[in-house]
């Protein structure tokens, strides 16, 4: 340890997405290669002498206590814990975090010394991993509200790779085996007697950590929700969700010193007749076991919706991933143009 293959892999993965601006401290981490990166991990991050770094990934993360603040993190998976190396500015982004983050180092703000805070989730505290629709994100759940983190990879490959690495590392943990389950039939195993609904697919790892995947009903519920937003204009049985992807909506600010743009996280859903943008809650659902009340907002909130038939053209940027798409719609306010003309020309 570490093998040449591992060092090559973490060097390749150690790249900040091009659309993200991060602090000097995280830029420093992203500049490390191979053995220097492993040594940095052992001298600055690792909590135990004999733990091994197994995987590195850059991802946006959300914390359960601060669901509105999405922040870029360097996620490091070792044989003992998952480390989230965060931008120091995140600590000051939300005034309600004072009980969540320790601010004793804030006197270093004005010096040339750049700080990062590191959130640690020990593998022994891990209880479940919820994988989002189409592997666009996953949520890691520990034993309390402080230990729930969602990684918004926006990339099924990165999600799949991390889950595979996590399962491999969990296999090394020595935990007492679970008691033998009582034999159950199919319906009592997967059905809920209260609701009659099928539960999500659950895979219980040998380390007793649950890996929970969405089932077909989740897509059905989403299709029903989308149909509701369309004011009943669409026949529900014929409504198909063709695409579900986590994206960013680009908002341009003109007139400032330099024209800047901000990225607003959105869930893009394409059906056979419409294009929707939703604000989705990626951290609160499904409800953790200790939650006393439902979250303050719904899982999906409609931000914008347009008919495909009103789509005039699609402009494509020439840059590499992430690709920028501009959808240009005809600016018709009323859905029935002829009715408007009739009223204007022949009405009173």
From TrEMBL:
Location (main, coarse): cytoplasm
Top-rank lineage group of the source organism: Eukaryota
Keyword annotations of the record: Cytoplasm
Keyword Cytoplasm on entry: yes
A molecular function GO annotation: kinesin binding
Domain Nischarin C-terminal PH: 241-347
Subcellular location: Cytoplasm
Domain (PLEKHM2 PH): residue spans on this chain: 114-178
InterPro entries found in the cross-reference section: PH_domain-containing_M2, PH_NISCH_C, PH_PLEKHM2
One GO-annotated biological process of the protein: Golgi organization
GO CC annotation: endosome membrane
Transmembrane segments: none
PANTHER family named among the record's database cross-references: PLECKSTRIN HOMOLOGY DOMAIN-CONTAINING FAMILY M MEMBER 2 (PTHR46556:SF1)
Name of this protein: NISCH protein
Organism: Calcarius ornatus (Chestnut-collared longspur)
